Amino acid sequence: MPWIDIDPAVESSANRGKPLYERLKTEIRERVDSGEWPEHTRIPSENELVENFGVSRMTANRALRELAFEGLIVRIQGKGSYVAPKKKSAPFMEVRNIAEEIAERGSTHLSEIVVAQRAICSPELAESLGVEIGAPVFHSIIIHHEDDVPIQMEDRFVNPLVAPDYLAQDFNKSTPNAYLSAVAPITHTEQFVEAALPHPWQCKLMAISRSEPCLLVTRRTWSADQIVTSVRLLYPGSRYRFCSAF
User: Fold this and answer.
1) CATH architecture of 88-243
2) CA atoms in the 13 A half-sphere facing the CB of 113
3) What is the C-alpha separation between 165 and 216, in angstroms, rounded?
4) C-alpha–C-alpha distance, residues 86 and 73, integer Å
5) pLDDT tens, 114-141?
6) Which of 19, 45, 187, 227 is surrounded by the most beta carbons within 10 Å?
7) Where is average pLDDT lowest: 33-37, 71-75, 159-163, 174-178?
8) Are 226 and 210 in contact (CB under 8 A)?
């Protein structure tokens, strides 16, 4: 395990004058920037920083928390802190297949199916899908991983009149996007993006903290004159970004 050792004899005078949590951040950042700690390297935990420096847990936590907020590291609950890969980017206006997007970056995609079931439309959902209140609907929640890191939570409702075999699909092998695009080609899309804080149950599934800023994409798609699906896509802000060119 690579230890950090702040040696006053070699540390710059400017850094020595900073608060200790800033000095910890500087040391970690220098090792990342130099390539000593490449992407996905596990960095010292709070306990290891406390033991190594004799600092308080609050100081160690602040250093790691701020580095995560700045996007230098990723903190995965139950596993530790790791040097963050460069943020994944996706075109904002396109409706992309997340598996293809990940493959294009040379990474490995994995689907974790949390929910795949029939449900009944609430008034709000019925309005969103353009069906009657109490009508049957298909509901799925899938966590999409890139190289074992959760980067997208897909919470989707599907109109069974348009895609009656939705729940019969093996979403470990193909994504909902791939299936729905094949059986009901998209003719119209409505999409909104906003900042959001995750709910506790989302934090657990995505292995993120309650304070992790996230991107929330709310999208509806049509095929001809029928609404096919209403989906909410949650992305941890430290792991993902959207890009656009005009």
Assistant:
1) 3-Layer(aba) Sandwich (3.40)
2) 14
3) 27
4) 10
5) 999 999 999 999 999 999 999 999 999 9
6) 227
7) 71-75
8) no
- Structure tokens of 246? 């005009």
Q: Find where tokens 């000593």 sit.
A: 36
**Beta strand pairing call for 214-223 and 188-196:** antiparallel
pLDDT per position as a tens digit, 52-63: 777 788 888 888
Rounded Cα–Cα distance for residues 220 and 226 (Å): 11
Indicate the burial class of 186 (C-beta count within 10 angstroms; 0-12, 13-18, 19 or more).
middle
- Looking up tokens 């130099």 gives 34
Topology of domain 13-83, per CATH?
Arc Repressor Mutant, subunit A (1.10.10)
Strand ranges in the chain using DSSP code E only, listed in sequence order: 73-76, 80-83, 88-91, 109-120, 136-146, 149-158, 188-196, 214-223, 226-236, 240-243
Please, which pLDDT band fits residue 245 given cuts at 50, 70 and 90?
A: low
The domain locations on the chain are 13-83, 88-243
Check residue 9 and give its pLDDT.
43
Exposure pattern of 113-135 as b/e (b: 16+ CB <10 Å)? Answer: eeebeeeebeeebbebbebeeeb
- Residue type for position 65: R
The mean pLDDT of 70-82, rounded to a whole number, is 81
Sign of the alpha-carbon torsion through 165, 186, 178, 231: negative
